Amino acid sequence: MRDLFNWYPPAETYIPLFAFVRAVFPVPDDFDLDMKRYLGVDTCVLGISGRALLSRLLMTLKNKNATRRMQILIPGYTCYTVAASVARAGLTIACYDLDPLTFEPDMDSVQAQAGSDTLAIIGQHLFGIPTPMEGLAGVSRRTGAYLIEDAAQGFGGTLRGMQLGSIGDFGLFSFGRGKPLPLGSGGALIGDAGVLDELTFDQAGSGFPGLAMAAASRLLSGRGIYGLLEALPLGLGKTVFDPGFSIQSMPKVIRCLGACSLKAIDPLNAHRNVIADIYRGTLGDKKTPPAPPESRAVFTRFPVMAGMRPIPKSLYQLGVRRMYPKAILDEPSIHPYCAPGSTSHPGASRIAEMLITLPTHTGISSETAREIAAEVREAYSW
Which of 278, 322, 319 lies closest to 304, judged by CA? Predict the structure, then answer.
């Protein structure tokens, strides 16, 4: 029986310790240049968060086009911060459904929702599993909408030799807690330099509170103490819809932290894939979305369509969690920002009901992964 001192966090918190030292005594950094080299792109803008960058991009596109296009088409099951970014930009949320077997867009739903009112379509790589973008790209071309690729969970993944995030008109990355490169805050945006050069941000503060939170998360996420953090009223892992966030540049200390941590991304993703292979080998392919051919997934967490049964405490202590509690159109707090007549999508709702996620981070050994997979099989009876 595990106790309070033997809990595993659900997501990645690893940052090299020397990176914190370098960030406290910041030196000239080239995080944006390093990102451009890593992604093979010419333009990269850094911000305080992925949602701040997305919201500012949408505001800029709205002003640049000066049209009546006021809808942003987003996945029906996605992080609430995507919806919050649309609301923060003063635009209307429209949703397309997802295939619950693959997490890919239901193209009939996309075709039905996209039109002359659509300013941008957002595609996503949920859990870092690459999603083919051809269908969404075709609809964006037909309707004249921008294609924004949400690679917040896919940094370091590839599809047919292309970095995730570099396929659409714009690509968005997040460095928040639990993301592929978990700096605790920050984000990056790539794409058309003519548009990105127009983005403006409020000046960031010192960044030291964010750095302290990232360091605390790194140091206190070991399995011997994480249970104590879960017991505190900190709201860890809670998903909320909040469009009241700030839009600022990335603080220098976070830029330094990122520049010193970037080399860790490939080893981190390699470990996650090893753990994902163990889960898939034990649980099979029927209840988790497949990665498409010629792709390299990231697996920030390993998704399993296990069922509606509550997660047993033993698995909860091993880091197994639900993800977003409801589909976008099933969340009452988001309704006022949605297009009139929006109704729930069955695929997205089914994902929200059935999905559990298994941890893949560096604190999960191969032995622990086998234990988790065996307990999942027993708990969900397959």
Answer: 322
Q: φ, ψ for residue 181 (rounded to 5)? A: -115, 95
Kindly write down the DSSP assignment for every residue of 333-374, as one continuous string.
GGGGGBPTT----HHHHHHHHHEEEEE-STT--HHHHHHHHH
Give the 3-state secondary structure of residue 179. Answer: coil
- The b/e string for 44-57 (b: 16+ C-beta within 10 A; e otherwise) is bbbbbbbbbbbbbb
Taking the C-alpha atoms of residue 335 and residue 80, their distance in angstroms, rounded to an integer, is 12
User: Residue 21 belongs to what H/E stretch?
Assistant: helix 17-24
| Counted domains in the chain | 1
Measure the CA–CA gap between 9 and 359, rounded to whole angstroms: 8
Which residues, 6+ apart, have CB-to-CB distance to 364 below 8 Å? 8, 275, 319, 372
Asked whether residue 84 is domain-assigned, the answer is yes
Let me know: does 332 contact 344? Beta carbons within 8 Å: no
CATH number, residue 231: 3.40.640.10
What are the mean pLDDT values of the chain's consecutive 10-residue runs (382 residues total)?
70 85 76 96 97 98 86 98 98 97 97 96 98 98 97 98 97 95 96 94 84 77 71 67 95 92 96 97 91 95 96 94 95 95 90 97 95 96 76
104, part of any domain: yes
Range(s) of the domain holding residue 209 = 17-379
Unique residue bearing structure tokens 């039905």: 112
What is the chain's alpha carbon radius of gyration, rounded to the nearest angstrom? 20
How far apart CA 258 and CA 382 sit, in angstroms, is 42
C-alpha dist (Å) from residue 303 to 286, 299, 347 = 12, 8, 15
- The pTM of the whole model exceeds 0.85: yes
Residue 9 maps to a domain: no
305 domain-assigned: yes
Do residues 272 and 182 lie in contact, with contact meaning Cβ atoms separated by under 8 Å? no
